[in-house]
Specification:
514 residues; globular; alpha/beta
């Protein structure tokens, strides 16, 4: 009976999910290849991860409309690791990272990843964006990026001088700049009838046509004749390296960063549609399965990715079928048309990643943090960004987390957050959450669960009479929840109390998060 209902629902939704899956496929194809090259590995590795993320993770995900695949946010980490330890060592790392994610999902700690301060998350992504831009500027000149962000920064004047001295490097720069111009121009001026045609695809086509019609001698993507024949289990020697401290640290880093990025992306996708909400623990486990499988067959690490996910929602997807089908289209493309990939210049993919990296930097996030939470929170964002660029990702995130903890100390001294779920006085049937004590990111899982238990429709009251402090992480979560509930017709009222905590909470409930 359930199977028959499921098939009927699938057929009903196919009219929207099928075209959406083609849009996501067209967005994913150049990004998967570009992220592979930015990671220092052949382009087919990213496509393999896109297939696993689409078909396997899509089937079991806790966020049905989220698309999983290789992520720009992990490219910098993977590049440095592969340069130091070799690509073969990455397989066991991903298997271990996947197991850690599975265990975390099984222990139901998915909501804890939402407790990471938005200032730290956006600072981390901004730092990664800077590193991607600095590295891909060299790829734009058909050169090889250097090991660190600071090295790439210092070498840019030499790379520019050599490129404009003439020869093949100038041709590569022309292709890269044409790609960037085509992507930005299409996204700004594209006709309404073609709004679902992604800018990344148009950009790759523009760069490829320029190189081909102009007869330019530039580097192009190299792919094996039989791409799927490259799938292979890690060797026994690679498994033996799991005891090395550097390998264990890498597994922990990928598990933590991939989990945080996936669940934050899922929360963002939830704000874009009115369909089923994310089941965070299930999504965390699904990401673990995906990374485990990618480790076994030689893929890249995966996360839930916001660019492909937002394209999926905007294209009209209503179920997980769209995500699964996009993975099937990538697989069909690899089996039927792998020769098409060899026509694409690497400088064209670098151009796409320069735009992607700049958008990760997202100065608008800093303005948003300043407008709502002040200079201290912006300072955490900036220090996290600079530390990621100057040292490494893990050091940057830990530095940002430490600063967030220091910022929350005054609130922690005022006692733990207590949440009392009652019926509003003199208003029968109206639920009221009475908040007291200090609300910090350390109490976020309990706060999230209490918010999600409130019914949709009617009115929900947040009573702040006993609330002595509230940090920006809790305010962001309440703001997101209030926006979603308002879209479903729920009225949110902030009542009781006075002073800064009450005023800050009332302000975020009254205005959109972004």
């Amino acid at each position: 009976m359930q199977l028959a209902q499921g098939l009927q629902t699938f057929r009903q939704n196919l009219g929207r999910d099928l075209p959406a899956s083609f849009v996501v496929f067209l967005v994913a194809l150049p990004l998967c290849m570009g992220i592979s090259i930015a990671s220092g590995v052949p382009p087919e590795k990213g496509l393999i991860t896109g297939i696993v993320g689409g078909i396997l993770v899509g089937l079991i995900a806790g966020a049905p409309l989220q698309v999983s695949g290789p992520a720009a946010g992990l490219a910098v980490i993977v590049f440095e690791f592969v340069r130091t330890h070799g690509f073969e060592a990455l397989g066991p790392v991903l298997v271990l990272a996947g197991i850690l994610q599975l265990v975390a999902g099984g222990l139901r700690i998915g909501n804890w990843f939402r407790a990471i301060s938005p200032a730290v998350v956006h600072g981390m992504l901004a730092g990664i964006g800077v590193l991607i831009v600095l590295g891909q500027i060299h790829v734009l000149t058909d050169a090889v990026p250097l090991p660190s962000g600071l090295d790439n920064l210092m070498a840019i004047p030499v790379a520019v001088f050599e490129a404009f001295s003439g020869g093949n490097r100038l041709s590569a720069v022309m292709v890269g700049l044409a790609t960037i111009a085509a992507m930005l121009g299409w996204e700004r001026f594209r006709p309404t009838r073609l709004k679902l045609l992604p800018g990344a695809l148009i950009a790759v086509l523009a760069g490829t046509l320029l190189a081909s019609l102009g007869g330019l001698d530039v580097k192009r993507i190299e792919v094996p004749d039989a791409i799927l024949s490259t799938l292979a289990l890690p060797s026994s020697e690679a498994w033996g390296r799991l005891a090395e401290p550097a390998i264990l640290v890498m597994a922990l880093t990928i598990a933590a960063v991939a989990s945080a990025e996936s669940l934050l992306s899922a929360a963002a996708v939830d704000r874009m549609h009115d369909g089923p909400r994310t089941r965070y623990d299930r999504e965390l486990g699904a990401q673990g399965v995906g990374n485990l499988v990618c480790g076994l067959i030689g893929g890249l690490p995966m996360t839930g990715v916001i660019v492909r996910s937002s394209a999926n929602v905007q294209a009209g997807a209503v179920s997980r079928a769209s995500t699964v089908l996009h993975g099937i289209w990538i697989l069909a493309f690899l089996l039927a048309l792998p020769w098409v990939l060899t026509m694409v210049p690497t400088a064209a993919l670098a151009g796409i990643l320069v735009v992607t990296g700049w958008r990760l930097v997202g100065p608008s996030h800093a303005f948003h943090l300043h407008r709502r939470y002040g200079w201290v929170t912006v300072g955490i964002w900036f220090v996290t960004l600079v530390t990621v660029v100057a040292t490494d990702l893990l050091t940057g995130v830990l530095t940002g987390f430490g600063l967030s903890l220091l910022q929350s100390l005054p609130a922690l001294r005022r006692g733990r957050l207590r949440i009392e779920e009652v019926e509003a006085p003199k208003q029968e049937g109206v639920p009221e959450l009475r908040l007291s004590g200090g609300a910090t990111f350390l109490q976020l899982p309990g706060l999230t669960e209490a918010l999600e238990r409130t019914p949709e429709g009617g009115e929900v009251r947040l009573a702040t009479r006993g609330l002595s402090a509230i940090d920006h992480t809790c305010l962001e979560v309440i703001s997101d929840w209030a926006n979603r509930r308002a879209a479903s017709g729920t009225r949110i009222a902030v009542v009781g109390g006075s002073g800064a905590p009450h005023d800050r909470l009332a302000a975020v409930v009254a205005s959109p998060a972004h």
